[in-house]
Amino acid sequence: MSAWFIALLQALLCVALAPLLVGWVRRVKARLQNRRGAPLLQPYADLRKLMIKETRVAHTASPLFRVAPYIVFVATWLACATVPLIALDLPTAGIADIIVLVGLLALGRFFLALAGMDVGTAFGGMGASREMLISALAEPALLMAVFTLAMTAHSTSLVGVMEHHLTDGFLLRPSYLFAFGALVLVALAECGRIPVDNPTTHLELTMVHEAMLLEYTGRHLALMEWAAWIKLLLYGVLIVNVFLPWGIATEFTPAALALGLVAVVVKLALLGAALALGETLMAKMRLFRVPGFLNLALLLGLLGLLSHVILEVGA
Amino acid sequence: MPDAPLILALLALWLALGSAAVPLLAGREPRLLRLAAVPLLGLAGGVALAAGLWTLIAGTNASAVLPLGLPWLPWHVRLDPLSGVFLVLIGLVTGAVGLYGRDYVRHFEGGRESLVALGGFSGLFLAGMLLVVLADDAFLFMIAWEVMSLSSYFLVAFQHEQAANRRAAFLYLLMAHVGGLAILLGFGVLAAFGGGFDFDAMRAAELTPLWAGVAFALAFLGFGMKAGLAPLHAWLPEAHPVAPSHISALMSGVMLKVAVYGFIRTVLDLNGEVHWSWGVTLIAVGGLSALVGVLFALVQTDLKRLLAYSSVENLGIVFIALGLALLFQSTGHPNLAALALVAALYHALNHALFKSLLFLGAGAILHSTHERDLDQMGGLLRRMPWTGSFFLIGCLSISALPPFNGFVSEWLIFQSALQAWNLDSGVLRSLVPIASAVLALTGALVAATFVKVYGIAFLGQARSRHVRRARPSPKGMWAGQGLLAGLCVLFGVLPTQILGLLDPVADQLLGTGVPQAGANGWLWLTPISAETASYSAPLTILLPALIAGTALWWFKRRASWRVRRCDPWDCGFAAPTPRMQYSAASFAQPIRRVFALLFLIDEGRDQGADGSVRYRLRIADRAWGWLYVPVARAVDSSARRVARLQSGSVRVYLGWTLVTLLVLLWVIS
Fold first, then answer.
1. Contact criterion met (CB below 8 Å) for B246 and B332
2. Is B542 on the interface with A (CB under 8 A)?
3. Distance CA B441, CA A135 (A)
4. Which residue among B399, B437, B455 sits closest to A302, beta carbon to beta carbon?
5. pTM (2 d.p.)
6. Could you name the domain of life of the organism this protein comes from (chain B) (predicted)?
7. What's the pLDDT tens digit per position in B389-437?
């Protein structure tokens, strides 16, 4: 029972932490660009404001337009809740292994893209079309990276992968390095970060994610934005906890859980700073250069998998 | 009574034949088709379903000799778990088609097409499919196969007044018979070694590896052609769209699965020892079909054609899973082979459900708007809410999204592919993950395809006037769709139960099932072990429902729950017109550009006589140029050479006859 309680706590924690991570990335980025930037807690204030504001829906929208934010939010949240954040071996982890996780994110994306096309404006369709292009190329790369880990641990459960990693000690496996590279590239694309998409742009010809949200207001917009932030947190946790799982609580004592929380916050803060640095140094790519970028990710994923099955199995 | 399921199955057969006979009177009384023939068809489906379920639950294995056929070749029938699964598949879809068809065939009444042909051949088509699944000797199997192929030819040619339909039907007939010939030859090899045409003799036969390989290749060619595997898929996107929509559902949802049945029966049951290279062949061809199918589906703008191409893709996935099963079986991992086989069967079942659902949806759109072109549709969700909702479930299922059924089978295929580390050969170990990369790419592209389909057809605003005035379809039609949509959800949420039903097949063919799948209770699907992988489909429904319910309650409490309607914002431009929306072609353009190598694209501007400018886009299949055109040319030129014999002079013909007889006499002696 206590395990389910901690699982619930962890699920609430990922919803609560997501805006903080976004605020942190924005803050670091502002500092790197010599701006003062908004306060760390600004995303929470934004959410609150959007929740209070009146919600407007276009005349031409179908019921799907109003349901989509809830589905996107819940699917993303459920995906995030199954990733071990502060403690391993929670019962929620059994609901979904890595493949289901990818599936849940795909479910959210499906509705996001449909919602973009629903009102029947010029931009929504453009955003949906581009989003599906990017995800079509990113998803196989993601699965390849994930399969490398899964084949090493002989398990597609994230807990299994992390446990394998914790007990085996850190071996500098070439396959892990490739998989890590692939996962980072995919995370940039899937979370709509520079160089694939710019989360702060509203320039019509370059945007992808924002184009699908143009018609949303009020709490619908809040849910959509929040879901995007949770997705960023999810990928962040995936990167830091799967490749560097140290510190995570393997038993449910308060001390271990506290250590797990501190560890993951520190790791995410470092990752966020790295992301901010990367976004400051890089420029956004043209849309038709994105396939090249994602092919690189796919290639890395495949190389990881092949170097695993050729070099490491049986060795 | 051990034979009860078999008797039920034969009853279903008689009902199907009855449904074929009734419309003979429909020339006088057109309503008979709707009031008797179609309900009988649905009833036959229901009875077949009961027979199949009974077989699977009781695990019975009944056979009988029918008092029909040639004196020295009586017809054998048999109902075992493998036939049972496919009876269930046929039964589920036919039942739904029966519900749907009643209202759908109404608009053919008073048309110029022959209702006798429609009703009669539909019944024969179903009877043929049922008989293929029940046949226990090659003789009956081939007869049933031909009944199925020929009756479906007449259904494809149903609206024969358009030249394109006649062409499609002819191509279908041609390829069905080339495939049928290959199957016949394959049975010939098996019968030669077994010393008889019944399947029991073939099962007992000891084939040399070379001849086993030949039998496999012939079966793969024949059944693969019928299943529409690339590059032999070209007939499929031509033939399936032109049949009436409820028949398209049967052809794409069921007939292709009958080919899968034939393949499993021949290769895993009759052929004996499996060679690893067979598995590799299947994985390669399956992967190619999956990728080609989905990419061509993505660029189509004709809804039914798009769905037909997507069948090529899904059958590719089924064959990837079958390839994994053969691979694991040949390398001595029967339990993993069982997992892959069960995954293949599961996917076949799922595809039957969602593809039929989507074809019925396309039929409903056609019925209400007389439109198959996506670029003319739009906003149909508000015009046809039921069809729209069911169609959405079909789109989610086919895109393999949790918690719907397509996801479960793809998840199982991934799980069995990830067991590749068990293989000893490094080449095979790296080949299997590459196949799963293809599968992953396919899955993502399918999602893009169906976002396009749903977004263009059902969302946005109507792109033409007649679509704007579409009416909801009659109740019977959405009842059929609703049944299939409900089954899609059910098959997605209760995977352990479905796996339990499929298990006897793996037991029968491979000697072992997947007993671990439900070992942790019905809530958790654990195909190999709980540590390796687990998926709880019921909880992926339940937990989100809880969260969403809480959120709704929370917002509903507040005063600001109500939303205000306003004009679309669209970045502050003037009010958007329907013509400003993304069209099906523009949605697919970025992906088309990335995968440009695979397509033959003819794109440009056409200047009309009145000075108007129109955008032109035609996308053709490269398979035509690479495979079909050379074959057609070769046939043409050899025919021309043979035609030299035809001099028109009787004396020359008699001379040829004499020479032939002499040569034959010499050969025989």
1. no
2. no
3. 10
4. B437
5. 0.94
6. Bacteria
7. 999 999 999 999 988 999 999 999 999 998 888 888 888 888 888 888 8
